[in-house]
Amino acid sequence: MKHLISISDLSVDDAIRILDVAEAMAATQSRAIKKLPTLRGKTVINLFFEDSTRTRLSFEAAAKRLSADVISFSAKGSSVSKGESLKDTALTLQAMGADAVVVRHRSSGAAHRLAHAGWIDLPVLNAGDGTHQHPTQALLDAMTLRRHFTNEGRPAEPGTTLAGAHVAIVGDILHSRVARSNVGLMSMLGARVTLVAPPTLLPVGVENWPCEVTYDFDEALAAHLDAVIMLRIQHERMSAAGGGFFPSPEEYHHSYGLDSERFERLGKHTAIMHPGPLNRGLEICAQAADSAQSVIVEQVSNGVSVRMAALYLLLAAKENFNV
């Protein structure tokens, strides 16, 4: 496997292999010297056509901790703002000697196009494309859940799956590449996944996804949940689509927010997750976000390990994922 574009590109063995390597990478980050020589001499391009903080910095940290050189590209202030195409930008970066491209783009399918159009001959890692996929976010979520579901927050044993876990993903499913990737990966690893959202924030065809769907957050909370993943309300995509997805922020929070009352009803071992950035007071209250059950900061830490694993397996391991 040459690229990491979509969760659907992975087999169960591929996914577990990435998670196991991520655990090995995480173990190295407790050392005084965190850098590994694995990708010395390699150059990784971060090609970001869409705003990002956590994902961009996480990929940059991952590459640097593997001793790769990193070139970070932002569409703002670049030739893209003058009309340069994705193809010409990619060709320019390959000519500069890149060994891999991490791409984030507002258009669904952009990462696949970059990887398979024949423009460049480089591994491509999808850091989020439109409302389509965000595979490394799903992998870091799975790493976090795997630890808390099977080993009380400690590193998971090699080969561990999510069989028996029950996860609720709540909020703006319609615009969420995180939800799409998580449903695919977590169900692949054996978890039961329940989507919770108003009808206006569910995509057409969701009944064909490998998950359950409910409009009632309180009904979902009545089941035993091992984790609840609260999704950000994506105001920017809603505004572009004309808005009108729910009556008001107050109404949304009342029906679908993890407020103080719902937080009190969560099981004491239910992990609270969020891909960030948080809209505090809308999808999640401060009490829940800052509680001992919140693993949101741990997700960020695990993101660096997962991205180290992905870069290692694509650029350094023999036969890529099949080492």
TrEMBL record:
Q: Share an example GO biological-process annotation for this protein.
A: 'de novo' UMP biosynthetic process
Q: Could you tell me the superkingdom of the organism this chain comes from? A: Bacteria
Q: What class of enzyme is it?
A: transferase
| Binding annotation for carbamoyl phosphate | 54-55, 104, 134, 137, 276-277
Q: What GO MF terms are annotated?
A: amino acid binding; aspartate carbamoyltransferase activity
Its keywords, alphabetically, are: Pyrimidine biosynthesis, Transferase
Q: Which residues bind L-aspartate?
A: 82, 177, 232
Q: Where would I find the Aspartate/ornithine carbamoyltransferase carbamoyl-P binding domain in this sequence?
A: 2-146
Question: Which pathway is this protein assigned to?
Answer: Pyrimidine metabolism; UMP biosynthesis via de novo pathway; (S)-dihydroorotate from bicarbonate: step 2/3
EC numbers for this chain: 2.1.3.2
Q: Where is the Aspartate/ornithine carbamoyltransferase Asp/Orn-binding domain?
A: 164-314
- Give the matching InterPro entries: Asp/Orn_carbamoyltranf_P-bd (IPR006132), Asp/Orn_carbamoylTrfase (IPR006130), Asp/Orn_carbamoylTrfase_sf (IPR036901), Asp_carbamoyltransf (IPR002082), Asp_carbamoyltransf_Asp/Orn-bd (IPR006131)
Q: Gene3D superfamilies under this entry? A: Aspartate/ornithine carbamoyltransferase
Family membership, please give it.
Belongs to the aspartate/ornithine carbamoyltransferase superfamily. ATCase family.
Could you tell me what this protein does? Catalyzes the condensation of carbamoyl phosphate and aspartate to form carbamoyl aspartate and inorganic phosphate, the committed step in the de novo pyrimidine nucleotide biosynthesis pathway.
Q: What is this protein called?
A: Aspartate carbamoyltransferase
